[in-house]
Design a protein that fits this description.
single chain, alpha/beta, TIM Barrel, 44% helix, binds erythose-4-phosphate
Amino acid sequence: MRPENLKTRIFLDGADPAETRQVMAALGFLDGQTTNPSLLAKNPEAKAHKVSGNKFSSTAIYDFYKALCQELSAMLPQGSISIEVYADAATTPAEMLKQARSFDTWIPNAHIKLPTTAAGLEAAAVLTGEGRRVNMTLVFSQSQAAAVYAATGGAGRGDVFLSPFIGRLDDRGENGMDLIRNILAMYAPSDGHVEVLTASVRSMAHFQCALALGSDIITAPASVLLAWAEAGKPLPRADYTYKAEGLVPIPEEVLSLNKSWQDYAIGHPLTDAGLEKFAADWNSLIDMQA
Ligand code: E4P
């Protein structure tokens, strides 16, 4: 059962249906699931293909991803399933649009994950204009969040998720939770068409802090969700404080949300590195000769 006062939607970050079943059984509810190429590469069946030297062809990988998303969607028909486009630094908006429109036919409850780069934002503007749902991923700055808001103006509430990656900011010594706080504050007076999905959650402290801040959605790995279930699904008390020991604070910026998306600083080194890693993990599953 969902805790009575829980307002945040809880997603599983993973790409293994057996794990989804386990988490659903432990929690008694689940609001959605996020996938990405790195998680796909950890899927037991995908891993077995790779280890046995029987990699996917460049078309079979999409069939595999589609079947996986269909299985997840059948388990979570009322929830949302995020499906990520393949993108590297050279991928054009047109190539992202082609994948996105195809993914959108796979299941009725897809959010299409696009990188928060100029190409991804251009694709997001087109897709939301077509009434499709997107999840803007690899977000590491408040100005990227402002750009997402501007690029997707006019979208319906719930149609746009924004995924700031807190764990990866922590990894380089910055307090990722500050970014969530800053973006929520920036979006508070807005029309609410972009929902904040706290991603790259590594610990129960991240999870509890995101709840305390009022993140619209949190996606967390099975290990964190199972530990939360085991602890009785506690919610943070009103006096909850997050201990960001050894992490440098990320100051809040004052940004207007009224500019065009091209006018915001979009680039971030962690977005570039993340894109590269996702592309490498996707390609590691493919037999380039097939
Ligand atoms: C989810 O949408 C993200 O892709 C995921 O949370 C990234 O997590 P990581 O930084 O642990 O890879």
